[in-house]
Design brief:
Helix content: 25-40%
Largest sheet: 4 strands, mixed
Distance between the termini: 16 Å
Number of helices: 1
Number of strands: 4
Mean pLDDT: 85
Strand order of the largest sheet: 1-2-3-4
Order of helices and strands: EEHEE
Protein name: DUF5615 domain-containing protein
Strand content: 15-25%
Length: about 80
């Protein structure tokens, strides 16, 4: 968090209580809901939108969900 990195995960428990504690308030997260082998190709498809969402947030945390046929951004 101090280095402004983004957590990337395929974990289904991504939004469990431990990620909702104040300790993780500044953590930006990307969760994939597509199979792992498809992740890199899917990220390439939505990379422009992903970068736009991060820039638009202006340092605030962003939660992004990338699926096979959808992209969900929550600021």
């Amino acid at each position: 968090m101090e280095a402004n990195r983004i957590l990337i995960s395929w974990d289904r428990d991504f939004n469990q209580q431990r990620f909702l504690t104040p300790r993780f308030d500044r953590l930006s997260r990307v969760g994939f809901s597509c199979p792992e082998p498809e992740g890199a190709a899917r990220l390439k498809q939505v990379l422009d939108l992903f970068e736009f969402a991060i820039k638009r947030a202006k340092g605030k945390p962003v939660a992004i969900r990338i699926g096979r046929d959808k992209l969900q951004v929550k600021c």
